[in-house]
Design goal:
Elements (H helix, E strand, L loop, with lengths): L1 H12 L1 E2 L1 H8 L8 H13 L4 E3 L7 E3 L6 E5 L5 E4 L3 H11 L9 E4 L2 H19 L4
Parallel strand pairs: 4-6
Antiparallel strand pairs: 1-3, 2-3, 4-5
The chain binds zinc ion (ZN) (2 copies).
Length: 135
């Protein structure tokens, strides 16, 4: 029951830490503890029903997709998006790596759409201030 709820929430979020899952689920499942979330996700990982996404190393980033895949990571908000690079691209990257093997997927870093939009709006409001006449 709790396992189903955790799995369902992770599938909705696609990527989440245990703390995020807890924060999302706790309001509707007051009996759910942080420890229970840790226990449930550890078991799901063991069974291969979920995977691990690249993270900053401070907290495990759980991935609803257990299969090897690539990611786009936003350096502003830390958001992750699943992508699947073509085999030929991975082969081209691998060719430059020699004996260092690409194994757990490739992470591309950049700025996500919503962060880019927020930055643009900030820039625009900056322009507006600059356009105001000096008094
Ligand atoms: Zn972002
Ligand atoms: Zn992923």
């Amino acid at each position: 029951m709790q396992t189903d709820a955790v799995l369902k929430t992770l599938r909705e979020l696609r990527h989440a830490t245990n703390m995020t899952l807890y924060a999302v689920l706790h309001p509707t499942m007051p009996t759910l503890s942080v420890q229970a979330v840790h226990r449930i996700t550890a078991r799901l990982l063991e069974r291969g029903e979920i995977g691990l996404a690249p993270s900053d190393g401070r907290q495990l980033m759980l991935d609803a997709n257990p299969h090897t895949h690539d990611h786009f990571a936003c350096t502003s908000c830390g958001g992750l998006m699943d992508i699947q690079l073509p085999e030929s691209t991975i082969a081209a990257i691998q060719a430059q790596l020699g004996r260092n093997l690409v194994r757990d997927g490739i992470v591309l870093n950049g700025r996500c759409e919503s962060c880019a939009q927020a930055a643009e709006e900030e820039e625009m409001s900056g322009h507006m201030i600059r356009l105001e006449p000096l008094s």
